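pasting for ref
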Amino acid sequence: MGKIGPDHRQVRETPGQVTAQFGLPISKLAGTGDSMLLELFKSGKYFATGAYFPGATLQMGLPVEWHLNVVRANWRLLIEGTYRHHSGTTNHPFRLEVDLDKDQLGRGHFHLNSFHTGEIVGTTAGLGRECSFLGRRAGNDGFVSMHLVQVADLVFEVSGQVAVDAGTSIAYQLKVIPNDPLLAKANVVSLAKGGA
């Protein structure tokens, strides 16, 4: 039997690692000293494409694309760039800052600022290759939710909802891939070696 950890889960100490009650070594979940979300991304440029669904029906999505620059530093993840939706060719800037709590595995806070959402703050939590974000806009009914899943090395699927002010929520789905020659090369080498 093990002891109860600070997050109220039973843990066992073994030589050189701590294992969670569900059998996964925390070192495998967290990587080498970083939090899981930091382990999912490498610094570099990414491209995301997908659709958003502004109506009550999810039958026909409208296209959206994002150009992202990701920077990892210590316990912080900075993602900034531009996005463009179907109604025009205007690129709108956005910035997402994620500060991870090094004392709580996979948890942290984020700050999102974009043309359509304004400033949204919230929390993030993750386990393994998945991470969820939930935040709200101060002073009104705006919110954002996002679920990010790593489907291969440096390839992600993102889905969620966003609502601005008291408006109807808009669902969205995106696929994120590397758009940086060095990241793309690293991804091909990883796949050739049998990486996920």
